[in-house]
Amino acid sequence: MSGKRLAKLPLSMKNSPPERSEKIQRNDPCWCGSGKKYKKCHLAADKQQRREGKDAPPRLDRIERSSEYIEGMRRAGKLAADTLNMVDENIRDGITTDIINTWVHEYTLDHDAVPATLNYRGYPKSVCTSLNNVICHGIPDDTILSEGDIINVDITSILDGYFGDTSRTFLIGDCSTDAQKITAVAEECLDIGIQAVTPYGRMGDIGAAIQAYAHSMGCSVVEKFVGHGIGRQFHENPQVPHFGKRGHGVKLIPGMFFTIEPMINLGDKDLYILDDNWTAVTIDGKLSAQFEHTIYLTETGVEVMT
Ligand code: MF3
Ligand code: CO
Ligand code: CO
After folding, report:
1. Which ligand has the minimum distance to the alpha carbon of residue 168?
2. Distance between CA 13 and CA 230 in Å, rounded?
3. Does some domain include residue 9?
4. By the number of CB atoms within 10 A of the CB, which of 97, 140, 230, 275 ranks highest?
């Protein structure tokens, strides 16, 4: 994992520029999601295909997945989604974010799974709870939820070695127009992002669609954190930026599993990380909201796993 810019890792992302969508380079991660450099993976095969005058070699342009793998991802995704629904049914003002952590932790273990975030690169809890101006990676503590708060709850479960990753922003009681707006825009951004995914399309199609909508609503898109490939590891290639250009970036190949998880800000897109080395907050203190799904791309379209 070293040396690569990985998704959603504050330490490795902090000093690196966000990925700009370009034609794939020799040292880029291969489009197929293997995690290898392009030059060590599909470069030679692609060159051969081009010599034969073919643009998109169909036989190489897919990742073979066993039915066991797909079923494993379905079950992990469903458990993460069920856990989030459990939170939805119980979340209210007056509780602490630590209580949400306990709910998620116990529910996950009760279902023979493990919370992926616990001890992940030193992260201390079983869920991320990101309140108001927190963009992501908020750590549960004794903070009490009050009416008018918005809070993102981000759940990642490991079931039989497969990962499911999903999040939603909840409105606590009556919320300001701004809070309602940013939450609705973020949810819509996820939806629009999913709709932009097509087999043999490009990663940039997703970001471009999200960005256009967010900007049309006067909101900004966080660039320092991105979605990610997912499978039998938490964060895999490819990266999934929530900004970009249509027709650019990694090719979207049937067989890919990845998350889309736009973080949308009411004000500036920039952020800083608190002294706990995790909590990412908006630079201007304004609200931020996020929604996330794990998706599976097939020859015919998208299956939402969460
Ligand atoms: N669930 C987050 C994501 O969507 C990652 C959280 S990593 C943690 O990718 F360590 F902060 F928990
Ligand atoms: Co994720
Ligand atoms: Co997540």
Report:
1. 3
2. 18
3. no
4. 230
**Cβ contact 161:170 at 8 Å:** no
**Domain range holding 114?**
81-304
Domain with residue 209: its CATH number is 3.90.230.10
Total domains in the fold of the chain: 2
Per-residue pLDDT of the chain (306 residues; tens, 9 = 90+): 333 333 443 333 333 333 333 456 788 777 665 678 889 988 887 787 678 765 544 445 789 899 999 999 999 999 999 999 999 999 999 999 999 999 999 999 999 999 999 999 999 999 999 999 999 999 999 999 999 999 999 999 999 999 999 999 999 999 999 999 999 999 999 999 999 999 999 999 999 999 999 999 999 999 999 999 999 999 988 999 999 999 999 999 999 999 999 999 999 999 999 999 999 999 999 999 999 999 999 999 999 999
Q: How far apart are CA 58 and CA 72, in angstroms?
A: 26
Domain assignment present for 298: yes
CB neighbour class for 15 (10 Å; exposed up to 12, middle 13-18, buried from 19) = exposed
Element (H, E) at 263: strand 263-265
Q: Cα(288) to centroid of ligand 1, in Å?
A: 16
Rounded to 10 degrees, the C-alpha dihedral 82/139/103/80 comes to: 20
Nearest CA to ligand 1 atom 12: 117
Sign of the torsion formed by the C-alpha atoms of 200, 203, 208 and 210: positive
Asked if 30 and 119 sit in the same domain, the reply is no
Domain match, 128 and 220 both: yes
d(CA 49, ligand 1 centre) in Å: 38
| Claim to verify: residue 32 and residue 85 sit in the same structural domain | no
> Are the C-beta atoms of residues 97 and 145 closer than 8 Å to each other?
yes
- Global pTM reads 0.85
